[in-house]
């Protein structure tokens, strides 16, 4: 339930000045206001001079670090931060994780959750293990088993590697084929700490998923920023053309539909983790392999695995022909999932070269296949 902002900020202040603080991040902006810095991070550190509260602020051009003495100096510095019109606060202590979000009406949505595992104050040079803390309220909703945490962390690291270090002031995101949307919410939680304004839309063909995911967004206090629509990947109507397109484990040619829409939108960044690859596999099965590659497709299991590689290679090639720089990387260790490739794409708008066109045409001609994505692109 919403509560007065002053009361919620008082709770944040108490935790920021608590000896149990481990880390806090402020980001985003309230409606109609702009903070003087885009992001602030607070954590306790131990220096040669003794215990300090470290405050790192970033104005978009460079970070500024202050190490203040506990007591009156720290209290004054924290009060300065709390006076900034940030839209989100995320505070972690050894006992609790607190998430504050300011609504469009200026009220506060406040969520508290016990930490998932014991946390200790960070040493000055120790890195955070997880990009999304296991104590985040999201895990109270979706569950936080080890496999799910690993997948979310691997996804967020891939997302971080795809986006530029200097993030834009606003970001519009669509997740095509979002399913139960736990990666959708993870992307939002991660980006909302780093980008002042984030809007996310999840698309799934099932109406019951839309209803469920909308309820989850409300319970997490982000229903204004994270919305869901029921519809097909090809036809779903969105309130904006996205900067970032996600397509994570869309089955078979649904991945191609998502990539085709991303190209049509001229999305700046695309992350796709293909799932099944039946389309090209069926084409390979219907004709003999070119000599001398018969052994690659003679056995069903080998043909299936080769179809996976060929399909994603052709998808990457088509994205390059349409102005994207593409990296194909491991999504998560294959011990945790058999479908573990991720296509990370960044739009450059570079025109294709004749060599790129010739290589693609030679590959499809040699194997006698026509990828679904080729037929979907203009």
Automatic annotation (TrEMBL):
<keyword id="KW-0489">Methyltransferase</keyword>
<dbReference type="GO" id="GO:0032259">
    <property type="term" value="P:methylation"/>
</dbReference>
<dbReference type="InterPro" id="IPR025714">
    <property type="entry name" value="Methyltranfer_dom"/>
</dbReference>
<keyword id="KW-0808">Transferase</keyword>
<dbReference type="Pfam" id="PF13679">
    <property type="entry name" value="Methyltransf_32"/>
</dbReference>
<feature type="domain" description="Methyltransferase">
    <location>
        <begin position="148"/>
        <end position="283"/>
    </location>
</feature>
<protein>
    <submittedName>
        <fullName>Methyltransferase family protein</fullName>
    </submittedName>
</protein>
<dbReference type="GO" id="GO:0008168">
    <property type="term" value="F:methyltransferase activity"/>
</dbReference>
<dbReference type="GO" id="GO:0005737">
    <property type="term" value="C:cytoplasm"/>
</dbReference>
<dbReference type="InterPro" id="IPR029063">
    <property type="entry name" value="SAM-dependent_MTases_sf"/>
</dbReference>
């Amino acid at each position: 339930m919403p509560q007065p902002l002053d009361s919620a900020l008082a709770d944040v202040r108490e935790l920021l000045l608590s000896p149990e603080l481990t880390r806090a991040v402020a980001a985003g902006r309230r409606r109609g206001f702009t903070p003087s810095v885009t992001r602030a991070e607070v954590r306790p550190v131990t220096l040669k001079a003794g215990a300090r509260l470290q405050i790192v602020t970033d104005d978009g051009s460079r970070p500024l670090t202050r190490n203040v003495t506990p007591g009156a100096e720290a209290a004054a510095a924290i009060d300065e931060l709390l006076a900034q019109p940030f839209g989100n606060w995320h505070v972690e202590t050894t006992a609790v994780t607190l998430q504050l979000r300011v609504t469009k009406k200026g009220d506060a949505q406040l969520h508290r959750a016990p930490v998932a595992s014991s946390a200790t104050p960070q040493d000055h040079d120790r890195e955070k293990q997880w990009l999304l803390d296991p104590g985040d309220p999201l895990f109270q909703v979706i569950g936080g088993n080890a496999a799910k945490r690993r997948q979310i962390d691997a996804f967020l690291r891939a997302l971080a590697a795809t986006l530029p270090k200097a993030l834009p002031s606003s970001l519009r995101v669509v997740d095509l084929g979002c399913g139960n949307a736990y990666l959708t919410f993870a992307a939002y939680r991660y980006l909302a700490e780093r980008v002042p304004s984030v809007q996310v839309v999840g698309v799934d063909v099932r109406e019951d998923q839309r209803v469920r995911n909308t309820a989850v967004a409300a319970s997490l206090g982000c229903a204004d920023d994270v919305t869901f629509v029921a519809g097909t990947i090809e036809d779903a109507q969105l309130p904006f053309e996205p900067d970032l397109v996600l397509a994570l484990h869309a089955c078979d040619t649904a991945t191609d539909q998502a990539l085709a829409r991303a190209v049509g939108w001229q999305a700046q960044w695309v992350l796709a983790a293909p799932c099944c690859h039946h389309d090209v596999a069926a084409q390979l099965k219907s004709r003999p392999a070119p000599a001398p590659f018969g052994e690659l497709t003679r056995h069903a299991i080998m043909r299936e695995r080769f179809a996976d590689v060929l399909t994603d290679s052709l998808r990457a090639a088509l994205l390059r022909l349409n102005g994207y720089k593409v990296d194909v990387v491991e999504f998560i260790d294959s011990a945790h999932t058999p479908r573990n490739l991720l296509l990370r794409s960044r739009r450059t708008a570079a025109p294709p070269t004749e060599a790129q066109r010739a290589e693609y045409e030679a590959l499809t001609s040699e194997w006698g296949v026509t990828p679904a994505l080729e037929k979907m692109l203009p």
